[in-house]
Amino acid sequence: MASIKLQHVAKHFGTKVAISDVDLDVNDGEFLVLLGPSGCGKSTLLRMLAGLETVSSGEIHLNDRRVDQLPPSARDMAFVFQSYALYPHMSVRRNIAFPLIMRQFKWWFHIPLIGGWAKRRIERSPEVADLVEKTARTLSLTEMLDRYPRTLSGGQRQRVALGRAMVRQPEVFLMDEPLSNLDAKLRTAMRAEITRLHQRVGGTFVYVTHDQVEAMTMGTRIALMRDGVVQQFGTPREIYTSPANTYVARFIGTPPMNLIEGRVEGGMIKLGEASLPMPHGLAAAAHAAGEPILLGIRPNALTLGAAGAPGQLAGQVSLAGQVSLVEHVGAESVVAVKLSHASTAHDEEGAVPGEIMITTQGYSDLEPGDQVSVVADLSEAVLFSRATGERLR
Ligand code: ATP
């Protein structure tokens, strides 16, 4: 088991800043997910942890040991690649045993005849055979030990790659998008399998993905990155309920959080023509008086009513609008509504000006063109500064 500490870690490729000044404290036994869009620097950060990339500045500590100057082999971290990186000419048994064989590497491995004989000896030694069998059992690979990678499915190959990482019993597992080559159904199954593996094997996991669902379901904590900078480091729940800024708010959740433009005036929140007392939980944002704000509200915290319906309870506001799109997604429907009086932060990626998204349970009978009232329960709302995008409470 191991804790990892990154202090002011930065990475430059020539003039390109891939990572700037990252600080992270990963606890012993934690499942940290590095999440972000393509090019945000998450693989570079993982590769620096592994020692496959040098740090330009800053320090990396494993427990109390500084490791950023050590070669990969001295770091006791196992890396699982997106491409699996299995040896095609080796059986599953030998692929899994390989890191143990290499641990006993001797110069005469290079002499083909002696090398082959020695490798077989090591592979069949009781300790190595025992560890390979144990690992194969944990990953349900026992039946496949004598098969070759080309005869395995993507999911089975992924399990062999995990086995090869596990067999060394490392302190830290580093995984770079290990599920991205699998189809959607298998991804979901492997997701649960890796989570169970983490619970069973223990150890500290650092997992790179651009998939928010993987991050939310697998991570004990998530570091959400953008342009080489960690935007927020927290539990999935913290990141979902209290996003640090509008970028985090829009990255997590499908459909993403709605951002409605407004203003704080005299202890009231004004959204277009609607105005309501500042809900209790948002009082800390009162200092933003007069400033433009964005009211962040998740699609599932909104309900739809007939046109003209008022917000019934304290802390609710009702906004008039017209349905522009309805999507039926099995157990729920996603309804897009163009607001009549309030506007939205349309400069956010994927946002349509003036439009908000609402998720409703079941099959919605609404149709484009219908006039509706959108009732927002502000107890779950978040306020952001319009100017900086930072959360105000
Ligand atoms: P992806 O999900 O697409 O793999 P990522 O978030 O893992 O993206 P990185 O691969 O870490 O991103 O890359 C971060 C930035 O650094 C990118 O702009 C990339 O082009 C750049 N970069 C990465 N490796 C190198 C390199 N060897 N030389 C120059 N630039 C690099």
UniProtKB/TrEMBL annotation:
InterPro entries assigned: AAA+_ATPase (IPR003593), ABC_transporter-like_ATP-bd (IPR003439), ABC_transporter-like_CS (IPR017871), ABC_transpr_MalK-like (IPR015855), ABC_transpr_MalK/UgpC-like (IPR047641), Mo/tungstate-bd_C_term_dom (IPR008995), NA-bd_OB-fold (IPR012340), OB_MalK-like (IPR040582)
Span of domain ABC transporter: 4-252
Gene Ontology biological-process entries: carbohydrate transport
Highest taxon, organism lineage: Bacteria
Annotated localization: Cell inner membrane
Protein's UniProt keywords contain ATP-binding: yes
Keywords: ATP-binding, Nucleotide-binding, Transport
Family of the protein in this entry: Belongs to the ABC transporter superfamily.
Protein name (record): Carbohydrate ABC transporter ATP-binding protein, CUT1 family
